[in-house]
Amino acid sequence: MAERVKVAVVGLGFGAEFVPLYQRHPDSECYAICQRNEESLNKTGGQFGVTRRYTRFEDLLEIDEIDAIHIVTPITEHAPMSILSLKAGKHTACTVPMGVTKKECIEICEARREADRVYMMMETAVYTREFLYAKELVDSGALGKIQFLRGSHQQNMSLPGWPDYWYGFPPMHYATHAVSPLLAISGKLVDSVVCFGSGKIRDEYVKRYGSPFAVETALLKLRDSDLACEVTRSLFDTIRQYRESFDVYGTKRSFEWEQLAGDGAVVYSGFEDSERVEVPDFGHLLPKEIAPYTIRGVYDEEHEHTSFVQGAGHGGSHPHLVHEFVRAIVENRESTADAAKAANWTMAGICAHESAMNGGTRIKIPVP
User: Fold this and answer.
1) Which of 61, 214, 316, 343 has the greatest number of beta carbons closer than 10 A?
2) Contacts (Cβ under 8 Å, ≥6 apart) of 141
3) What is the distance between the alpha carbons of residues 254 and 246, in angstroms, rounded to a whole number?
4) How many CB atoms lie within 10 A of CB 273?
5) Is the peptide bond prior to 97 cis by the omega test (within 30 degrees of 0)?
6) At what angle do helices 102-115 and 339-357 cross, to 10 degrees?
7) pLDDT band at 302, cuts 50/70/90?
8) What is the SS3 string spanning the chain?
9) Going from the N-terminus, what domains does the chain have, and what CATH number goes with each?
10) 101 phi and psi, to 5 degrees?
11) pLDDT > 70: what percent of the chain?
């Protein structure tokens, strides 16, 4: 492409973190921003010097100059907005999860095929420092043959302050942070899942979605593989420090990521031998213009602002996500989290919850 990819960012809470990345990436520009709240919209626009500001998502779809739309909105809006964006001929990136039903995931895959545009689910968990480090160990053969993988995403959202739609949300409907590292490291997709619920959340939470479980734990059988993976997810009424982690067990070495915040990762090299490792930064994989954004607190001299691009728990992933999305567009190829893969990663959780609600029935993952 002769010109930079013109990107519109929709949703400026968490989404505002991506604005300076599109501005500074050598192959893109943040052409426009969109948010319903006009006051917040103007605040972000002023902060980053973005003059094209919109309060209606639909208006972006009619602007020919916009090449791509990055959606960072509430969960229930992900699929409808992604489908509209693709049907308008825009390359589309969306935060996780892809959708909240199997039907939505399949419809996004269909829309992507018809539009012949890049789709990318912006899954932070497959670009954290810890993931990139573990993937490097796997690719180098340092772990040997992979025998088992485990993912965990535990969070207590029972305290007030979250948007209302979160309360009572089925844990496995937001499972991609725990599922995706396992599938990306193994290079496989989920064939089927068995899941059980455990415990019970308070009655007022159960009413919204009819989901009673405090914790859901699933076994994923991988397609064309001898591997199974374990995934545990909790959202309410279970006391645990926030954890987003994964483990990889091999014949030569094994890798475990952080059981307590700040403890770091551990590599096991024998029955008695273990080493707590300092996971390196991976900014060297990025263009120099955005490489510094893998580190917290980057000062933006032009706008006199300390960027919060790398938020807690996202492990320097944001610039990697932007770079992959932009380069997939420029190179006219599928992204690393393309529609088919994103659908499998998302539906693994959706089908896991379906299994739990049916007493642990094995559920096959649809092939979109």
Assistant:
1) 343
2) 252
3) 11
4) 9
5) yes
6) 170
7) low
8) CCCCEEEEEECCCHHHHHHHHHHHCCCEEEEEEECCCHHHHHHHHHHHCCCCEECCHHHHHCCCCCCEEEECCCHHHHHHHHHHHHHCCCEEEECCCCCCCHHHHHHHHHHHHHHCCCEEECCHHHCCHHHHHHHHHHHHCCCCCEEEEEEEEECCCCCCCCCHHHCCCCHHHHCHHHHHHHHHHHCCCEEEEEEEEECCCCHHHHHHHCCCCCEEEEEEEECCCCCEEEEEEECCCCCCCCEEEEEEEECCCEEEECCCCCCCEEEECCCCCEEEECCCCCHHHCCCCCHHHHCCCEEECCCCEEECCCCCCCCCHHHHHHHHHHHHHHCCCCCCCCHHHHHHHHHHHHHHHHHHHCCCCCEECCCC
9) 5-124+286-336 (3.40.50.720), 126-282+346-364 (3.30.360.10)
10) -135, 160
11) 95
Find, among 92, 74, 55, 66, the residue nearest to 8 by Cα: 66
Task: For residue 56, give every residue at least 6 positions away whose Cβ sits within 8 Å of its Cβ, in sequence order, or none.
Answer: 34
Q: 362, 334, 361, 357: which is closest to 116 by C-alpha?
A: 334
What is the model's pLDDT at position 310?
A: 32
**Does the CA dihedral 329-334-336-342 come out positive or negative?**
positive
Q: Taking a C-beta distance cutoff of 8 angstroms, is the pair 161, 202 a contact? A: no
> Which amino acid would we find at residue 110?
E
- Identify which of 206, 188, 207 has the alpha carbon closest to the alpha carbon of residue 197: 206
Residue 258 CB coordination number (10 Å): 16
Q: How far apart are CA 98 and CA 87, in angstroms?
A: 16
Dihedral angle sign, alpha carbons of residues 218, 222, 226, 229: negative
For 144-169, the pLDDT digits (tens) are 999 999 999 999 999 889 999 999 99
pTM of structure: 0.93
Q: Residues near 64 by Cβ (< 8 Å), separated by ≥ 6?
A: none
Do 302 and 40 contact (CB within 8 A), yes or no? no
Question: How far is the first Cα of the chain from the last one, in angstroms, to the nearest whole number?
Answer: 30
